[in-house]
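Board notes (copied after class):
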Amino acid sequence: MATTASQTAQEETGRPELKRALGTKLLLLFIIGDVLGTGIYALTGQVAAEVGGAVWIPFAVAFGVAMITASSYLELVTKYPQAAGAALYTHKAFGVHVVTFMVAFTVMCSGITSASTASRAFSSNTMKLFGVEAPSALVVTVVALLFMALVAAINLRGVGESVKTNVALTLVELTGLLIVLVVGAYALLGGQGDLSRAASLQLPDDQSAFTAVTAATALAFFALIGFEDSVNMAEETRDPSRTFPKVMFAALGTAMVLYLLVGIISVAVVPLDQLSEGDTPLLQVVSAGAPGFPIGIFALVTMFAVANTALLNMLMASRLLYGMAHEGVLPRFLGRVLRGRRTPWTAVLFATSLSMVLISVVSWLATANPDSSVVKNLGGTTSLLLLAVFTVVHVAVIVLRRDRVEHQHFKTPTFLPWLGAAICLYLVTPLTPRDATQYQIAAALLTLGLVLWFFTWLHRRRQGLATRVEDPARLEG
């Protein structure tokens, strides 16, 4: 009987082979869809609260950091175009097994916190859609949890179905942002609003311009994450060495142009004190700029936009758990795959459960502190986790320059990884006025990872099994 390529790969790696379902177009929409979404739809007002009307400044700075980081990722993913990701690069550069695991687990946690952020934004827009003006915290939380259950059901269908769903949702996201731009331009041309607000910095009394912009950049960076998810899809992408560079830069450039325009329009049309309230800033822009526009339609568009963020991030989180389980650094049951569809069902359920616990706990903490924003803290935690990973990735690029490969690959200018490492590390530290809650959430998640790793390591050691990361590529699923 003939042996298929899929069967051969499964025999070599000791795990079920994942389907290569992504080409150039799907990957482009995947990255755009993952970058667009919750960040711009839910956090524009929070960024404005940090710097006033000049929201384009932190977004532009965040874009610069994202492009530098994307360049480092592109060098690595085209240099090692297997099932690549931050954990693989970390292991190749440093070879410290527990560090490799923690990088992979941190990326997984960032996917869960990002999806949790999206779920809260989804719930808030659902309330607007049905005309609930002042929903209780319990109702908002319950709707968010039900939404996460729906995302899990979609991901269980498989990567092909998930990415095809992403195509539709990405088009919805783009439509929503175009509505904001058209409505905003119409309002400004009609004499409504004040475009000069986009040039004003309004700083807290105890902060300098640099400190305020830095804090806003750390938050705005959440709006641009997602590009790093694509390298974790290398095993499911056709010809990644040729595909990734052109797709990555095109997707980030498209997102940034939209973000700058939407940010300027938003602060010009809606007064800053109103824009920074709640989790639906773009809904306020449409409502103020075109009072006759059916606001329920835009609320529905926003719901689909943030749903895409949750879908793609939970897709990534489940693949990471799957990979870590098959490498033996997390419990083996997380590597079980549905027969026929070949989707990691136990990893999907575990990631969903962790997200639901996170949503519930952070929502409960917010009820005790009315000044605390659930969306801001979850989104800020996502940025915190990924900026820490990006720091390691930048350093890995520098270290791995000594490792030569035979094939041609993308190479970033040497000074960029150094610059990227310094900026990302700074944005991780408390030198930025980041809410302490974000550090607490990150610490709790990473502690959970260490506990799971330790008990898995102890169990495998007692059974005489390998307790080292033998194949870091498998950590990223």
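Comment from the instructor: Confidence is low (pLDDT under 50) at residues 1-15. Residues 97-129 form the longest helix (33 residues).
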